[in-house]
Structures are given as C-alpha cells and as structure tokens.
Amino acid sequence: MSQPFVLISIYIITMQLTILFSPSTSHYSSPSPPATPFNESPPTSPSSTYSEWLSAHATYYSVSDDTRDGVDGACGYGDTHRDGYGITGAAALSETLFVRGQICGGCFELRCLEEDVPFDKRWCVSGSSVVVTATSFCAPNYGFDAESDGGYCNPPKQHFVLPVEAFEKIAIWKGGNMPVHYRRIKCIREGGMRFTITGSGIFNSVLISNVAGIGDIVGVKVKGSRTGWIPMGRNWGQIWHVNALLQNQPLSFEVTSSDGVTITSYNVAPKNWTFGQTFEGKQFKS
C-alpha cells in the first residue's frame, strides 16, 4: 500500500470520528428535564422597587358596600380581618397590578401624590402613608373608557381600591379618585405561615396565608411521609392544589416566594389531619 493512500485513509477515518463525537454535530443529547407541573412565568423581581415610588390612583369602599365580598374573595383569603390582614389592610388591585392573582399577599405602601396639582393637595393627608396587602381583584368594566369614572380598573390603569379607613389615612374621602404613589415593601406578619387544607379524597386544596417577606408565592410543594416532594398547582389566588392520596400521613410544605426565597416547613400537619383544618409553619424574614 502506498504512503499517500495510507495518509488519505487515516485522514478520512479521523474526520469521521471527529464528526461522530463532536458535541456540535451529535445526533443524541441528554433528555431535557421535564417541565414543572403548573409552571407559571416568574414575575419580575420586586427587589428593585422597594425604594422606587410609582404612580397610580386609589379609590375606596366602605363596609356597607356591595363590593366588599369581591374585595375579600379573589385571592381566596375569605375573612381578611380574621386572617390577620386587618380592617384597613386589605386592598383590591386593578388587572394590570393583579397579574391573574400572582400578586396576592404582596404588600404595598401608598401615599397621596401631593406634588401633582394644587387641586389635589387639598384632599391629601400630608406626610402620611398606609400599608396594604393585595387580597383581591378590581375587575375591569369594558363598558367604560379607561379614562372615565367607571373605568378605574381597566387596563392599563394601575389602581388600588382601599377600605375607606385606609384611604382616610392618606386622603380626604371626598377627594374620590386620588392620584397616589406606591411601592412594594416587605410584609410584616405575626406568627408563621398558615396552611388551610380543604378538599376530598385525593383532591387536596391548600390556602397559604399570613406570609411575611415579599408576601406573594410562586411555587409550592407538598410531601407526605410516604411520598416524595410533589409540586402543587395554583388554583386561584393563593389557593394551591394537587391530586394525590395524602391522608393518614404527616405533611410538609416547601414554599417559594417571588424573590426566590424558599422556606421548608416539615411535618406541619400531623398524621391524623383532616380537611378543614389550619396549621402553622415556618415564616419568611421581614
């Protein structure tokens, strides 16, 4: 065999091996990790907005208003006063801010926009602010234009509906639809996170409330003594669910907030837990 033929053969074999094992041309790769069940788009990290004041408007509701049921319910908390958010601490947010319930549990500081125009200054409580929690949804009314009195909560409006007691901490109630500044802040809560378990059979629904720190939750897992960690899906607001046989075993929960912090509460519910009970776990730092 001649030397040129040997060299050509070696070159061809070398090229074939290079093509076969080159990472850039391989026909096989490790399988992609499975998508997280009930995956949601992660919200923008709120850490950059702690000291950044943004513009919005605020109106109010009173205890006797027919809208009170709507203000209490869209996040699943039910009786917000009983659950520790206080009479003045619960607020409904417009569609732009509500983000389909992902903001539920987040805390906001509001103050009257005194520097807007001289007319508004008459209705502001100077130097005062109020802290509220996102507990419900102010639904848009597309029968009205966003700039009209009936379209306060229409996109792209950033709007808060406050209890009148909270509204009066920053403005005179006769002022009506008031321009405000708002910013995200850390939530301060007493005690640990609360896990209220409801459902039937293999359907388990868990309301997570009294959450400190950034306040809103983006991921939840549950673990029984006879199971591994099971991701839960957001049902609505801060109610999470999973189909699994979890009865007759202690339950642990792993909760991740929107700023990426994860807290694990082991054996929160005892082996003999029943539907309708509420249990207290660990808490995020404020």
TrEMBL record:
<comment type="similarity">
    <text>Belongs to the expansin family. Expansin A subfamily.</text>
</comment>
<dbReference type="Pfam" id="PF03330">
    <property type="entry name" value="DPBB_1"/>
</dbReference>
<dbReference type="InterPro" id="IPR036908">
    <property type="entry name" value="RlpA-like_sf"/>
</dbReference>
<protein>
    <recommendedName>
        <fullName>Expansin</fullName>
    </recommendedName>
</protein>
<dbReference type="InterPro" id="IPR036749">
    <property type="entry name" value="Expansin_CBD_sf"/>
</dbReference>
<dbReference type="GO" id="GO:0016020">
    <property type="term" value="C:membrane"/>
</dbReference>
<feature type="domain" description="Expansin-like EG45">
    <location>
        <begin position="72"/>
        <end position="192"/>
    </location>
</feature>
<keyword id="KW-0134">Cell wall</keyword>
<dbReference type="InterPro" id="IPR007118">
    <property type="entry name" value="Expan_Lol_pI"/>
</dbReference>
<feature type="signal peptide">
    <location>
        <begin position="1"/>
        <end position="20"/>
    </location>
</feature>
<dbReference type="InterPro" id="IPR007117">
    <property type="entry name" value="Expansin_CBD"/>
</dbReference>
<dbReference type="Pfam" id="PF01357">
    <property type="entry name" value="Expansin_C"/>
</dbReference>
<keyword id="KW-0732">Signal</keyword>
<keyword id="KW-0964">Secreted</keyword>
<dbReference type="InterPro" id="IPR002963">
    <property type="entry name" value="Expansin"/>
</dbReference>
<feature type="domain" description="Expansin-like CBD">
    <location>
        <begin position="202"/>
        <end position="281"/>
    </location>
</feature>
<keyword id="KW-0961">Cell wall biogenesis/degradation</keyword>
<comment type="function">
    <text>Causes loosening and extension of plant cell walls by disrupting non-covalent bonding between cellulose microfibrils and matrix glucans. No enzymatic activity has been found.</text>
</comment>
<dbReference type="InterPro" id="IPR007112">
    <property type="entry name" value="Expansin/allergen_DPBB_dom"/>
</dbReference>
<dbReference type="GO" id="GO:0009653">
    <property type="term" value="P:anatomical structure morphogenesis"/>
</dbReference>
<dbReference type="GO" id="GO:0009664">
    <property type="term" value="P:plant-type cell wall organization"/>
</dbReference>
<dbReference type="InterPro" id="IPR009009">
    <property type="entry name" value="RlpA-like_DPBB"/>
</dbReference>
<keyword id="KW-0472">Membrane</keyword>
<feature type="region of interest" description="Disordered">
    <location>
        <begin position="31"/>
        <end position="50"/>
    </location>
</feature>
<dbReference type="GO" id="GO:0005576">
    <property type="term" value="C:extracellular region"/>
</dbReference>
